[in-house]
Amino acid sequence: MSSKVAVVTGANKGIGFSIVKGLCQRFDGVVYLTSRDEGRGRAAVAELNKLGMKPEYHQLDVTDRPSVARFADHLRQRHGGLDLLVNNAAVANSVDLYNSYEENEEIVRINYKSILLIQELIFPLVRDNGRIVNISSDCGHLSNVKNKYWIERLSGKNLTMEDINEFVEWFLDSCKNGTFKREDIADEGTVAAYRVAKVALSAATILQQKELKTRNISVNSLHPGLVRTDMTCGVGFYSADEAAETPLYLLLEAPATLQGAYIWYDRKVLDWYDYKADYYFKTSTLKS
């Protein structure tokens, strides 16, 4: 029960897989590789076994309450909790810059709403002085939002989860009833659902930190860089292993005082509230 425990969601490939690999090499404790699809997850574990690494495996669909609850029970009963958590499970529709309502709903559900389940069921198991890393994106910086009302509300000092959830529902409702305006989101409203979900995730990180501060748990969100993975259709300037370095730094080396921050792939802490900045994702980078 006393050994330290690290968990990475959505870890059968891409950045999640590379973070698991790095933890197996550098973290003195039990490392869980989790994935929605058990076959793919166990195949990923087998791949790491060939390299002499021995992560544990557990099925985890971050959008499914019973699945998250089962994993929480497993962690509680077998380990009494966990110490490091990487919320990495994500999906993007990179082929199409504009998506249907159904696609947008799925993107938001997996990239943002899943974190609310994890927060409810897994966060209470994170031990004092633990660390949580939410994998966000340059799509997750506030500069991706151009609607003045939502910029003001999301940057308010008294921000609540209700504000964040209403922002997400405003977007989904506008997609459903045909009132979505491309000018409300950066870059002519391209990959809007992914931007909205990641902005919501980055905003939620700030509130999660406030909630967990008394237990000295650090919660940070991170843009890992444009990484060559299936999700970006192979476009990017980083390999998954390179992109895993900053998340691993946050988990294992960063000062405990680094809390509630939005961090760039080069470890720089950016001002998330600087909505006039040029940090927002530009679809032109997918072509370069």
Automatic annotation (TrEMBL):
Domain of life of the organism encoding this protein: Eukaryota
UniProt cross-references to SUPFAM superfamilies, sorted A to Z: NAD(P)-binding Rossmann-fold domains
A family per Pfam: adh_short
Plastid recorded as keyword: no
Entries under InterPro entries matching the protein: NAD(P)-bd_dom_sf (IPR036291), SDR_fam (IPR002347)
Keyword Oxidoreductase: yes
Annotated keywords: NADP, Oxidoreductase
A single MF term (Gene Ontology): carbonyl reductase (NADPH) activity
Similarity section: Belongs to the short-chain dehydrogenases/reductases (SDR) family.
Protein name: Carbonyl reductase [NADPH] 3-like
Species annotation: Papilio xuthus (Asian swallowtail butterfly)
Gene behind the chain: LOC106113089
